[in-house]
Amino acid sequence: MNVVRWDPIREMDHLFTRLPASFMGRWQRLAADTDDGEPAWTPTLDVSETDSEYVVRADLPAVRKEDVSVTIDNDALTIAGERKFDKEEKSEKVHRRESCRGMFSRSLSLPDDAKADGIRAESKDGVLTVHIPKAKSERARAIEIKVQ
Predict the structure, then answer these.
(1) 75: closest CA among 122, 121, 113, 123?
(2) Of 17, 36, 68, 136, which residue is most buried, by most CB within 10 angstroms?
(3) Could you tell me the strand order of the sheet in which 68-73 lies?
(4) What is the pLDDT of residues 94-138, one digit of tens each?
């Protein structure tokens, strides 16, 4: 008879490697706490591409556009800001708070063909959209090389 020793740490590690990445990202964000005991918050990003540009969409519900900054530094796009705490009403008793608040920052490396000086950003309905134009690449034309 073979005796198999149960290793709970290995089993948990195996479980987390099988979970979808989207769930794990959210779990990791919610698992981290800030110094004041509030859950840390990291907004989700979607990145897509067309023939002429890259598009980054950040979900920023309840974040005013005045509280967001978009910067380029060392070929990295950084979206940073703060979802501020609402003023609590004295007559209101909070029973559950699942929404995260506080400072956030996300950085992405820009692709080689990104044109940094043409980047624009807009905020609408809780979604920040950053448009990153692609630099026009010159297509190689046929050139005959004479052999000497």
Answers:
(1) 113
(2) 68
(3) 68-73, 76-83, 102-109
(4) 777 777 788 899 999 999 899 988 899 999 999 999 999 998 876
In angstroms, the CA 114 to CA 138 distance is 14
Beta strands in 15-143 (DSSP E): 45-49, 53-59, 68-73, 76-83, 102-109, 120-124, 127-133
Looking at the DSSP bridge assignments, the partners of residue 124 are 127
CATH topology of domain 41-87+100-133: Immunoglobulin-like (2.60.40)
Q: Which of 84, 77, 75 is nearest to 105 (CA)?
A: 77
- The closest alpha carbon to 53, from 116, 123, 140, belongs to 116
Q: Are strands 53-59 and 45-49 parallel, antiparallel or unpaired?
A: antiparallel
pLDDT score of 69 more than 90: yes
Domain boundaries, the chain: 41-87+100-133
Q: How far apart are CA 122 and CA 148, in angstroms?
A: 57
Long-range contacts of 19-23 (CB under 8 A, 24+ apart): none
